Amino acid sequence: GCELTASTKSYTFQVDEEDDSDHILALSVVCLTDGAKDECNVVEVVGRNHENQEIAVPVANLKLSCQPLLSLDNFKLQPPVTFRLAAGSGPVHLAGWHQILHREDASFEEDDDLSEEEEEELAPIMPAKK
């Protein structure tokens, strides 16, 4: 997680460019923390689109009196990504998780095919009785 304030308006999450793994950053919760004023606090995510152009998208507009917390249901992002306090003085806390998928892991590849042993264990499908 990280905290955005009037003095620390942005936080960038990045991974080593030489890392051969796939990384997923999922944002779970954005909330105002102790000391926040009753003002609009707009948090935006800054990333790059498919044409490598920087884009900023607001993901939360929090106000102490009406919406101090927002659940983002594991909003998935691909690093590098910057979280920026576009309006307000915070403090706003962001929480989530970081998953690393190693490309050489067998768990990374989804294999829908059953092995021969698994196929033999399945009961044969019988026609419906009429």
TrEMBL record:
The keyword Acetylation applies. Residues 107-122 have a biased composition (Acidic residues). InterPro entries: Nucleoplasmin, Nucleoplasmin_core_dom, Nucleoplasmin_core_dom_sf. GO terms for biological process: chromatin remodeling. GO terms for molecular function: chromatin binding; histone binding; RNA binding. It is found in: Nucleus, Nucleolus. Keywords: Acetylation, Chaperone, Methylation, Nucleus, Phosphoprotein. One of its GO terms (cellular component) is nucleoplasm. SUPFAM superfamilies: Nucleoplasmin-like core domain. Residues 106-130 are annotated as: Disordered. Residues 1-99 form the Nucleoplasmin core domain. Belongs to the nucleoplasmin family. Interacts with NPM (via N-terminus). Forms a pentamer with NPM at a ratio 4:1 (NPM3/NPM). Two pentamers form a decamer. This is Nucleoplasmin-3. It comes from Nyctiprogne leucopyga. The lineage of its organism: Eukaryota, Metazoa, Chordata, Craniata, Vertebrata.
